[in-house]
Amino acid sequence: MIYWEIFLAFFIPGILGYGGGPATIPLIENEVVGKYGWMSTQEFSEVLAIGNSLPGPIATKMAGYIGYAEGGILGSFVALFATIAPSIILMLVLMAILMKYKDTPQVKNISKIVRPVIAVLLAVMTFQFLKDSFSSLGMIYSLLMVIGSYFLLEKMKMHPAIVISIALAVGAISGLIIY
Amino acid sequence: MVASAKEKQREEAKPQTRQGLRLQKELMIGNFRTGMLGFGGGPSSIPLFQQEAVKKYKWMTEEEFADTLALANTMPGPIATKMAGYIGYRVGGIVGMVNALVSSVLPTVIILISLLQVLQAYKDIPWVKHMSASIVPVVAVMLAQMTWEFVKKSGTTLGWKKAVILILASFLLTEVTHLHPGILIMILIISVFIPFKRKENPS
Which ipTM value was assigned to this complex? Predict the structure, then answer.
Protein backbone atom coordinates (compact mmCIF):
# COMPACT_ATOMS: atom_id res chain seq x y z
CA MET A 1 0.00 0.00 0.00
CA ILE A 2 1.66 3.13 -1.29
CA TYR A 3 0.11 5.56 1.22
CA TRP A 4 1.28 3.49 4.16
CA GLU A 5 4.79 3.38 2.67
CA ILE A 6 4.72 7.14 2.13
CA PHE A 7 3.59 7.60 5.70
CA LEU A 8 6.40 5.44 7.07
CA ALA A 9 9.04 6.99 4.81
CA PHE A 10 8.36 10.43 6.31
CA PHE A 11 7.23 9.44 9.78
CA ILE A 12 10.61 7.92 10.65
CA PRO A 13 12.68 10.96 9.58
CA GLY A 14 10.10 13.19 11.30
CA ILE A 15 10.49 11.63 14.71
CA LEU A 16 14.25 10.92 14.49
CA GLY A 17 15.43 14.12 12.88
CA TYR A 18 16.86 15.90 15.88
CA GLY A 19 18.29 19.24 14.84
CA GLY A 20 15.49 20.53 12.64
CA GLY A 21 14.75 20.20 8.95
CA PRO A 22 18.28 19.82 7.60
CA ALA A 23 18.90 16.91 9.98
CA THR A 24 16.00 15.04 8.42
CA ILE A 25 17.37 15.27 4.85
CA PRO A 26 19.80 12.32 5.05
CA LEU A 27 17.10 10.31 6.84
CA ILE A 28 14.59 11.08 4.09
CA GLU A 29 17.19 10.13 1.48
CA ASN A 30 17.78 6.87 3.32
CA GLU A 31 14.09 5.97 3.00
CA VAL A 32 13.23 7.43 -0.39
CA VAL A 33 16.37 6.50 -2.37
CA GLY A 34 17.79 3.67 -0.28
CA LYS A 35 14.82 1.75 1.05
CA TYR A 36 11.89 2.33 -1.32
CA GLY A 37 13.83 3.27 -4.46
CA TRP A 38 11.26 5.91 -5.48
CA MET A 39 13.94 8.09 -7.00
CA SER A 40 17.61 8.03 -7.94
CA THR A 41 20.29 10.09 -6.20
CA GLN A 42 20.21 12.40 -9.21
CA GLU A 43 16.45 12.98 -8.95
CA PHE A 44 16.69 13.42 -5.20
CA SER A 45 19.41 16.01 -5.62
CA GLU A 46 17.28 17.91 -8.14
CA VAL A 47 14.41 18.05 -5.65
CA LEU A 48 16.79 19.05 -2.88
CA ALA A 49 18.50 21.71 -4.96
CA ILE A 50 15.34 23.34 -6.19
CA GLY A 51 13.76 22.93 -2.77
CA ASN A 52 16.77 24.65 -1.24
CA SER A 53 16.48 27.59 -3.57
CA LEU A 54 12.84 28.16 -2.61
CA PRO A 55 11.61 29.70 0.62
CA GLY A 56 10.03 27.74 3.48
CA PRO A 57 11.04 24.77 5.61
CA ILE A 58 13.00 22.21 3.60
CA ALA A 59 11.62 19.03 5.20
CA THR A 60 8.01 19.86 4.36
CA LYS A 61 8.86 20.89 0.81
CA MET A 62 10.62 17.56 0.26
CA ALA A 63 7.76 15.61 1.84
CA GLY A 64 5.11 17.50 -0.08
CA TYR A 65 6.81 16.97 -3.43
CA ILE A 66 7.92 13.35 -3.00
CA GLY A 67 4.51 12.42 -1.60
CA TYR A 68 2.89 14.06 -4.62
CA ALA A 69 5.24 12.31 -7.08
CA GLU A 70 4.49 8.90 -5.55
CA GLY A 71 0.84 9.20 -4.57
CA GLY A 72 -0.72 12.31 -6.07
CA ILE A 73 -2.40 14.96 -3.95
CA LEU A 74 -3.42 12.49 -1.27
CA GLY A 75 0.15 11.18 -1.18
CA SER A 76 1.36 14.73 -0.71
CA PHE A 77 -0.95 15.22 2.25
CA VAL A 78 0.02 11.88 3.78
CA ALA A 79 3.72 12.76 3.54
CA LEU A 80 3.16 16.23 5.02
CA PHE A 81 1.05 14.81 7.82
CA ALA A 82 3.69 12.18 8.63
CA THR A 83 6.41 14.84 8.72
CA ILE A 84 4.57 17.41 10.80
CA ALA A 85 2.01 15.70 13.02
CA PRO A 86 4.17 13.40 15.19
CA SER A 87 6.55 16.13 16.32
CA ILE A 88 3.75 18.63 16.98
CA ILE A 89 1.64 16.14 18.92
CA LEU A 90 4.72 15.18 20.89
CA MET A 91 5.45 18.82 21.51
CA LEU A 92 1.94 19.65 22.73
CA VAL A 93 1.80 16.60 24.98
CA LEU A 94 5.28 16.93 26.41
CA MET A 95 5.35 20.71 26.66
CA ALA A 96 4.05 20.83 30.20
CA ILE A 97 6.34 18.07 31.42
CA LEU A 98 9.42 19.23 29.58
CA MET A 99 8.95 22.85 30.67
CA LYS A 100 9.88 21.63 34.13
CA TYR A 101 12.96 19.72 32.99
CA LYS A 102 14.11 21.90 30.14
CA ASP A 103 17.25 22.95 31.98
CA THR A 104 18.29 19.45 32.98
CA PRO A 105 21.39 18.27 31.15
CA GLN A 106 19.65 15.12 29.87
CA VAL A 107 17.15 16.96 27.70
CA LYS A 108 19.82 19.31 26.43
CA ASN A 109 22.12 16.38 25.73
CA ILE A 110 19.76 14.76 23.26
CA SER A 111 20.52 17.08 20.38
CA LYS A 112 24.18 17.22 21.38
CA ILE A 113 24.65 13.49 21.22
CA VAL A 114 22.65 13.00 18.02
CA ARG A 115 24.56 15.70 16.14
CA PRO A 116 27.67 13.60 15.29
CA VAL A 117 25.46 10.91 13.73
CA ILE A 118 23.77 13.50 11.53
CA ALA A 119 27.23 14.81 10.58
CA VAL A 120 28.21 11.33 9.40
CA LEU A 121 24.96 10.90 7.43
CA LEU A 122 25.50 14.26 5.76
CA ALA A 123 29.12 13.40 4.94
CA VAL A 124 28.04 10.11 3.34
CA MET A 125 25.42 11.95 1.29
CA THR A 126 27.99 14.52 0.18
CA PHE A 127 30.18 11.67 -1.02
CA GLN A 128 27.30 10.01 -2.90
CA PHE A 129 26.44 13.27 -4.61
CA LEU A 130 30.05 13.78 -5.67
CA LYS A 131 30.27 10.23 -7.02
CA ASP A 132 27.03 10.71 -8.92
CA SER A 133 28.25 13.97 -10.33
CA PHE A 134 31.58 12.44 -11.44
CA SER A 135 29.83 9.65 -13.31
CA SER A 136 27.23 11.83 -15.05
CA LEU A 137 29.23 14.99 -15.73
CA GLY A 138 32.82 13.80 -15.80
CA MET A 139 35.53 14.62 -13.30
CA ILE A 140 36.85 17.91 -14.67
CA TYR A 141 33.47 19.60 -15.15
CA SER A 142 32.32 18.36 -11.72
CA LEU A 143 35.42 19.65 -10.00
CA LEU A 144 35.07 23.04 -11.70
CA MET A 145 31.46 23.23 -10.54
CA VAL A 146 32.45 22.22 -7.00
CA ILE A 147 35.22 24.80 -6.80
CA GLY A 148 33.06 27.49 -8.38
CA SER A 149 30.07 26.94 -6.14
CA TYR A 150 32.28 26.65 -3.06
CA PHE A 151 33.79 30.01 -3.91
CA LEU A 152 30.39 31.66 -4.47
CA LEU A 153 28.74 30.14 -1.39
CA GLU A 154 31.54 30.27 1.13
CA LYS A 155 33.75 33.16 0.05
CA MET A 156 31.27 35.45 -1.65
CA LYS A 157 28.50 34.44 0.81
CA MET A 158 26.08 34.32 -2.08
CA HIS A 159 22.52 33.12 -1.50
CA PRO A 160 22.00 29.40 -2.37
CA ALA A 161 19.10 30.31 -4.66
CA ILE A 162 21.39 32.53 -6.73
CA VAL A 163 24.16 29.92 -6.87
CA ILE A 164 21.67 27.28 -8.03
CA SER A 165 20.42 29.64 -10.74
CA ILE A 166 24.00 30.29 -11.88
CA ALA A 167 24.67 26.53 -11.96
CA LEU A 168 21.55 26.00 -14.05
CA ALA A 169 22.63 28.74 -16.47
CA VAL A 170 26.18 27.33 -16.76
CA GLY A 171 24.74 23.84 -17.26
CA ALA A 172 22.32 25.03 -19.94
CA ILE A 173 24.97 26.96 -21.89
CA SER A 174 27.63 24.24 -21.72
CA GLY A 175 24.96 21.65 -22.50
CA LEU A 176 23.92 23.53 -25.63
CA ILE A 177 27.55 23.76 -26.73
CA ILE A 178 28.25 20.06 -26.16
CA TYR A 179 25.06 18.65 -27.68
CA MET B 1 -7.16 25.28 48.65
CA VAL B 2 -5.74 22.28 46.82
CA ALA B 3 -8.66 22.18 44.45
CA SER B 4 -8.45 25.86 43.64
CA ALA B 5 -4.72 25.63 43.08
CA LYS B 6 -5.29 22.77 40.70
CA GLU B 7 -7.97 24.71 38.93
CA LYS B 8 -5.68 27.65 38.55
CA GLN B 9 -2.99 25.43 37.13
CA ARG B 10 -5.41 23.98 34.63
CA GLU B 11 -6.49 27.47 33.70
CA GLU B 12 -2.87 28.37 32.99
CA ALA B 13 -2.20 25.21 31.05
CA LYS B 14 -5.17 25.81 28.81
CA PRO B 15 -4.26 27.63 25.61
CA GLN B 16 -5.46 31.20 25.68
CA THR B 17 -7.98 31.01 22.90
CA ARG B 18 -8.68 34.39 21.45
CA GLN B 19 -11.98 34.61 19.64
CA GLY B 20 -12.82 35.52 16.16
CA LEU B 21 -11.99 35.39 12.53
CA ARG B 22 -9.60 38.29 12.90
CA LEU B 23 -7.21 36.19 14.93
CA GLN B 24 -7.33 33.37 12.40
CA LYS B 25 -6.68 35.86 9.63
CA GLU B 26 -3.68 37.20 11.53
CA LEU B 27 -2.38 33.66 12.04
CA MET B 28 -2.77 32.99 8.36
CA ILE B 29 -0.99 36.13 7.20
CA GLY B 30 1.79 35.86 9.79
CA ASN B 31 2.57 32.27 8.97
CA PHE B 32 2.28 32.74 5.23
CA ARG B 33 4.88 35.48 5.49
CA THR B 34 7.31 33.39 7.53
CA GLY B 35 6.93 30.50 5.10
CA MET B 36 7.42 32.55 1.96
CA LEU B 37 10.29 34.66 3.26
CA GLY B 38 12.23 31.93 5.06
CA PHE B 39 14.89 31.28 2.45
CA GLY B 40 17.40 28.72 3.65
CA GLY B 41 15.03 26.33 5.38
CA GLY B 42 13.44 26.13 8.82
CA PRO B 43 16.18 27.56 11.05
CA SER B 44 16.39 30.75 8.98
CA SER B 45 12.68 31.37 9.52
CA ILE B 46 13.02 31.57 13.32
CA PRO B 47 13.77 35.31 13.44
CA LEU B 48 10.78 35.81 11.12
CA PHE B 49 8.55 33.90 13.54
CA GLN B 50 9.76 36.08 16.35
CA GLN B 51 9.00 39.17 14.32
CA GLU B 52 5.40 38.05 13.73
CA ALA B 53 4.61 36.37 17.06
CA VAL B 54 6.28 38.77 19.48
CA LYS B 55 6.66 42.12 17.75
CA LYS B 56 3.85 42.38 15.26
CA TYR B 57 0.89 40.42 16.63
CA LYS B 58 2.01 40.06 20.28
CA TRP B 59 0.83 36.45 20.53
CA MET B 60 3.48 35.81 23.17
CA THR B 61 6.18 37.61 25.13
CA GLU B 62 9.86 37.54 24.28
CA GLU B 63 10.49 35.11 27.15
CA GLU B 64 7.69 32.74 26.21
CA PHE B 65 9.04 32.71 22.69
CA ALA B 66 12.54 31.87 23.90
CA ASP B 67 11.18 29.04 26.06
CA THR B 68 9.12 27.64 23.21
CA LEU B 69 12.10 27.78 20.90
CA ALA B 70 14.40 26.08 23.40
CA LEU B 71 11.90 23.28 23.92
CA ALA B 72 11.11 22.89 20.24
CA ASN B 73 14.83 22.47 19.68
CA THR B 74 14.97 19.48 22.00
CA MET B 75 12.25 17.69 20.03
CA PRO B 76 12.65 15.87 16.76
CA GLY B 77 11.25 17.06 13.45
CA PRO B 78 11.40 20.28 11.45
CA ILE B 79 11.67 23.35 13.66
CA ALA B 80 9.52 25.72 11.61
CA THR B 81 6.44 23.49 11.70
CA LYS B 82 6.83 22.84 15.42
CA MET B 83 6.91 26.59 16.05
CA ALA B 84 4.00 27.34 13.71
CA GLY B 85 1.89 24.50 15.10
CA TYR B 86 2.53 25.27 18.74
CA ILE B 87 2.08 29.03 18.47
CA GLY B 88 -1.08 28.49 16.40
CA TYR B 89 -2.44 26.13 19.05
CA ARG B 90 -1.65 28.48 21.91
CA VAL B 91 -3.39 31.49 20.46
CA GLY B 92 -6.11 29.88 18.35
CA GLY B 93 -6.72 26.33 19.56
CA ILE B 94 -6.83 23.38 17.16
CA VAL B 95 -8.23 25.52 14.34
CA GLY B 96 -5.39 27.99 14.88
CA MET B 97 -2.86 25.18 14.74
CA VAL B 98 -4.15 23.74 11.47
CA ASN B 99 -4.49 27.23 10.03
CA ALA B 100 -0.90 28.18 10.95
CA LEU B 101 0.51 24.94 9.55
CA VAL B 102 -1.36 25.09 6.27
CA SER B 103 -0.43 28.76 5.74
CA SER B 104 3.26 28.20 6.36
CA VAL B 105 3.71 24.87 4.56
CA LEU B 106 1.36 24.60 1.58
CA PRO B 107 2.38 27.62 -0.55
CA THR B 108 6.02 26.54 -0.84
CA VAL B 109 5.07 22.92 -1.51
CA ILE B 110 2.84 23.98 -4.39
CA ILE B 111 5.60 26.14 -5.88
CA LEU B 112 8.09 23.25 -5.67
CA ILE B 113 5.68 20.79 -7.29
CA SER B 114 4.94 23.10 -10.22
CA LEU B 115 8.61 23.98 -10.80
CA LEU B 116 9.70 20.35 -10.77
CA GLN B 117 6.90 19.33 -13.12
CA VAL B 118 8.12 21.82 -15.68
CA LEU B 119 11.61 20.34 -15.34
CA GLN B 120 10.28 16.76 -15.60
CA ALA B 121 8.46 17.53 -18.86
CA TYR B 122 11.68 18.50 -20.62
CA LYS B 123 14.14 16.26 -18.84
CA ASP B 124 14.94 13.96 -21.79
CA ILE B 125 16.40 16.71 -23.95
CA PRO B 126 20.22 16.32 -23.64
CA TRP B 127 21.05 19.91 -22.74
CA VAL B 128 18.25 20.05 -20.16
CA LYS B 129 19.66 16.83 -18.70
CA HIS B 130 23.09 18.39 -18.59
CA MET B 131 21.64 21.50 -17.00
CA SER B 132 19.90 19.64 -14.18
CA ALA B 133 22.91 17.36 -13.65
CA SER B 134 24.95 20.52 -13.09
CA ILE B 135 23.05 21.10 -9.86
CA VAL B 136 24.43 17.92 -8.27
CA PRO B 137 27.97 19.21 -7.60
CA VAL B 138 26.52 22.43 -6.14
CA VAL B 139 24.30 20.45 -3.77
CA ALA B 140 27.37 18.39 -2.84
CA VAL B 141 29.10 21.61 -1.76
CA MET B 142 26.03 22.72 0.23
CA LEU B 143 25.90 19.34 1.96
CA ALA B 144 29.62 19.52 2.69
CA GLN B 145 29.07 22.94 4.29
CA MET B 146 26.24 21.53 6.40
CA THR B 147 28.37 18.53 7.36
CA TRP B 148 31.15 20.81 8.50
CA GLU B 149 28.71 22.90 10.55
CA PHE B 150 27.41 19.78 12.29
CA VAL B 151 30.97 18.53 12.93
CA LYS B 152 32.06 21.90 14.31
CA LYS B 153 29.00 22.19 16.54
CA SER B 154 29.54 18.62 17.78
CA GLY B 155 33.12 19.49 18.62
CA THR B 156 32.25 22.62 20.57
CA THR B 157 29.30 21.14 22.47
CA LEU B 158 30.64 17.66 23.23
CA GLY B 159 34.37 18.30 23.20
CA TRP B 160 36.47 17.23 20.23
CA LYS B 161 37.60 13.89 21.67
CA LYS B 162 34.07 12.67 22.34
CA ALA B 163 32.79 14.10 19.07
CA VAL B 164 35.45 12.37 16.97
CA ILE B 165 34.85 9.05 18.73
CA LEU B 166 31.09 9.34 18.14
CA ILE B 167 31.60 10.32 14.50
CA LEU B 168 33.92 7.38 13.84
CA ALA B 169 31.64 4.97 15.69
CA SER B 170 28.51 6.06 13.85
CA PHE B 171 30.36 5.89 10.53
CA LEU B 172 31.37 2.30 11.25
CA LEU B 173 27.89 1.32 12.42
CA THR B 174 25.89 2.90 9.60
CA GLU B 175 28.27 2.42 6.66
CA VAL B 176 30.20 -0.76 7.46
CA THR B 177 27.66 -2.78 9.43
CA HIS B 178 24.68 -1.07 7.71
CA LEU B 179 22.75 -0.34 10.88
CA HIS B 180 19.66 1.81 10.18
CA PRO B 181 20.50 5.37 11.29
CA GLY B 182 17.16 5.54 13.12
CA ILE B 183 18.12 2.69 15.41
CA LEU B 184 21.46 4.31 16.17
CA ILE B 185 19.78 7.62 17.02
CA MET B 186 17.26 5.85 19.25
CA ILE B 187 20.05 4.04 21.13
CA LEU B 188 21.87 7.34 21.67
CA ILE B 189 18.73 9.07 22.97
CA ILE B 190 18.13 6.25 25.44
CA SER B 191 21.77 6.35 26.51
CA VAL B 192 21.39 10.01 27.47
CA PHE B 193 18.91 9.06 30.17
CA ILE B 194 20.88 6.16 31.67
CA PRO B 195 23.35 8.16 33.80
CA PHE B 196 20.35 10.13 35.08
CA LYS B 197 18.91 7.00 36.67
CA ARG B 198 22.23 6.06 38.15
CA LYS B 199 22.35 9.36 39.94
CA GLU B 200 19.00 8.68 41.57
CA ASN B 201 20.14 5.83 43.79
CA PRO B 202 23.10 7.19 45.71
CA SER B 203 25.83 4.62 46.08
Answer: 0.75
